[in-house]
Design goal:
Elements: E1 2-3, H1 10-28, H2 43-52, H3 61-81, E2 88-89, H4 90-105, H5 107-113, E3 122-136, E4 142-156, E5 161-170, H6 177-183, H7 186-203, E6 210-220, E7 227-231, H8 234-257, H9 265-268
Parallel strand pairs: 1-2, 5-6
Antiparallel strand pairs: 3-4, 4-5, 6-7
Helix pairs in contact: 1-2, 1-3, 2-3, 7-8
């Protein structure tokens, strides 16, 4: 549902969201003692939340409470009237509409994301959660529990192939995505999700299907709302695999030693850390 109000400043939203969530939780448990719909009757709760998030601690308590009531009443009332819906503002709707149009405009992202354009042999599975175990070969096959939530798996049952798609939004120009790809280790995410997708395929009985590749469908949330599709190279998937194996090895190490403060380098290097500008 699209709201016809604009959210107040983030701190006020946090206070109102916390207040409303608490009331919803109590109502679920049958403890709905406070039936008032007015923020004027909830000053004690408002102040408690303000203190918790340290909202304007230099102000007087009365000033902080009044500010929340003044700026947050419309938003609070809207939440109460639409508690069973996902609420977005008109400005957010405009961004989502622009992003969707851009993803349709780019024929590759369109073919990756919109089911009605699929050939008959394709079926898409969205937001699939996968649970599996990783066994660390250097730690006596110690088991590390793993979980992944994959945006999209496209399965071609006719040709027995599948591909993995991850939707990325960016507030930066699309020309900066390559930098984000490296800085935020998206290639490592791609490699781990590739592993997870193979587990998911096996769990579903599609073990003999061939992997066609990992794709990012990206769109700008601002600027010109440019959309672009990227495929992760086999070299980057291999690099990402090496990295996630090293990270899971760290987890296995801490699980086996039952200590989580000292990093693995303390044991590997006898407490000596190496400085290397290339890393």
């Amino acid at each position: 549902m699209v709201s016809k109000i604009e959210k107040p400043e983030p701190a006020i939203v946090t206070v109102i969201d916390s207040l409303f969530a608490g009331e919803e939780a109590f109502a679920t448990l049958g403890w709905d003692d406070d039936s008032s719909t007015s923020l004027e009757d909830k000053k004690e709760s408002i102040l408690s939340i303000c203190n918790t998030i340290q909202y304007q601690m230099r102000w007087k308590d009365e000033t902080r409470i009044n500010k929340v009531i003044e700026k947050g009443t419309e938003y609070y009332n809207f939440l109460r009237e639409n508690s069973d819906m996902l609420v977005i503002s008109t400005s957010t709707e405009q961004i989502l509409t622009s992003c969707r149009e851009a993803l349709h405009k780019n024929k590759i992202t369109e073919s990756l994301l919109f089911d009605d354009l699929f050939e008959d042999s394709y079926i898409a599975y969205n937001e699939e959660e996968v649970y599996f175990d990783h066994f660390d070969r250097t730690m006596a096959m110690l088991k590390v529990k793993c979980k992944a939530k994959i945006d999209r798996i496209m399965v071609d049952h006719k040709y027995k192939t599948y591909r993995v798609v991850d939707l990325k939004t960016t507030g930066k120009p699309m020309s900066k995505f390559q930098g984000s790809y490296k800085a935020y280790h998206y290639y490592r995410q791609a490699a781990f999700y590739t592993l997870a997708s193979s587990v998911w395929m096996e769990q579903k009985g599609y073990k003999d299907y061939n992997f066609e590749g990992f794709f990012f469908a990206c769109v700008e949330t601002g600027n010109y709302h440019i959309a672009r599709a990227y495929q992760v190279s086999e070299q980057d998937l291999a690099l990402g695999k090496n990295e996630y194996i090293q990270l899971l090895h760290r987890v296995a190490y801490h699980q086996s030693t039952e200590q989580w403060e000292t990093p693995i380098e303390e044991e590997d290097n006898g407490g000596l850390y190496t400085l290397n500008l290339e890393n």
